[in-house]
Design brief:
This protein is mainly α. The protein is built from four helices and no strands.
């Protein structure tokens, strides 16, 4: 929105300025009107191109470059990185993308925190299960020993 408004303002200013200059030249007839129209149109074209280049560079390329750096940092696994305030505080089309990227970052952080939490729970439960398994194994060995002792004692009484 801001980019569109800036283009409109620039081109309206160029057209109005050109109209005033052409009107002045025609009314005063100090110079050849056709030559002046041609020169003023050339100036307007050059100014329009320069203004467009500056506007596109400032309002489009710079924010995209900043967001690209931010996304690259997130992709490398650094979720502590923040989008610069200069992008967040803008009132243009990039704000929607910025908010979506921030939401994505916080969602991924939550997922990672939950995975770490669940991983610790699994590790704790695994340790507990290993300890229980060891107790069961020891108890089974003791029962096996008792059964063997009983068998041996029973076999002594039969003879």
């Amino acid at each position: 929105m801001k980019l569109t408004v800036s283009f409109i303002i620039i081109f309206v200013a160029i057209i109005v300025g050109r109209a005033f200059i052409v009107n002045y030249a025609i009314n005063n007839q100090n110079i050849n009107a056709d030559l002046f129209k041609f020169v003023s149109m050339g100036r307007a074209l050059v100014l329009g191109i320069l203004a467009s280049f500056y506007s596109v560079r400032f309002f489009v390329i710079k924010p995209i470059s900043i967001m690209q750096n931010y996304i690259t940092e997130i992709a490398s696994g650094d979720f502590r990185v923040e989008i610069p305030k200069s992008i967040i505080n803008k009132k243009d089309e990039f704000v929607t993308i910025t908010h979506a990227l921030q939401y994505m970052q916080s969602s991924i952080q939550e997922i990672i925190i939950n995975i770490i939490k669940k991983s610790k729970e699994v590790s704790t439960n695994s340790d507990s299960l290993a300890a229980t398994s060891k107790k069961v194994s020891t108890t089974a060995q003791n029962l096996n020993q008792i059964v063997d002792d009983l068998r041996e004692n029973i076999s002594r009484f039969k003879v």
